[in-house]
Amino acid sequence: MFAVGLMHYVVLSAMLAGLGILVMVTKRNAIGILIGVELVLNAGNINWAAFSRYQVGDAGGVIAALFGVVLAAAEAAVAIAVFVNMYNNLATVDVDRASELSG
Fold first, then answer.
1. Which residues of the chain fall below pLDDT 50?
2. pTM summary value
3. Quick one: DSSP state of residue 54?
4. pLDDT value of residue 25
5. Which of 20, 23, 71, 78 has the most CB atoms less than 10 A away?
6. Residue at 3 is within a domain
7. SS3 (DSSP) at 102
8. What local confidence, expressed as pLDDT, does residue 61 receive?
9. What's the domain range around 25?
10. What is the DSSP letter of 5?
11. Would you say 7 and 37 are in contact if contact means Cβ atoms under 8 Å apart?
């Protein structure tokens, strides 16, 4: 029988964080960058929950992960509002053209 240990969660979290950073660095589309940010936030949430799971009697990590999910939802809502405004003004969500919005 295969047992999933703490190291498996840490490796998964590191892979998600690395993938998220790679997406944020390589994408020029604002939606793609937002997806990368969400991957990094979810990697942190996995770490919180995993370390809480292996600390007997401690639910603080799970509570922190829930706050992280709420933070990610709020961040996504604000970012999408900014992207819609950017699309209305420039007809694109290319972040290289965002400097044209400065007034």
1. none
2. 0.85
3. T
4. 95
5. 20
6. no
7. coil
8. 86
9. 10-92
10. -
11. no
- Look up residue 38 and give its two tokens: 């969400």
How far lies 71's CA from each of 51, 61, 78, 89, in Å? 20, 15, 11, 27
- In this structure, what CATH number is given to the domain that contains residue 57? 1.10.287.3510
Count of Cβ atoms closer than 10 Å to residue 97 Cβ: 15
Amino acid at 30: A
Report d(CA 59, CA 44) in Å as an integer: 16
How many separate domains does the chain show?
1
29 phi, psi to nearest 5 deg: -80, 135
**Token pair belonging to 35:** 């997806």
Alpha carbon of residue 48 to chain centroid: 14
Chain-centroid distance, C-alpha 73: 10
Local structure of residue 57 (DSSP, 8 states): T
Single-letter residue type at 89: N
Of the candidates 72, 70, 63, 13, the one whose C-alpha atom is nearest the C-alpha of residue 37 is 72
Which pLDDT value is given to residue 44?
Answer: 94
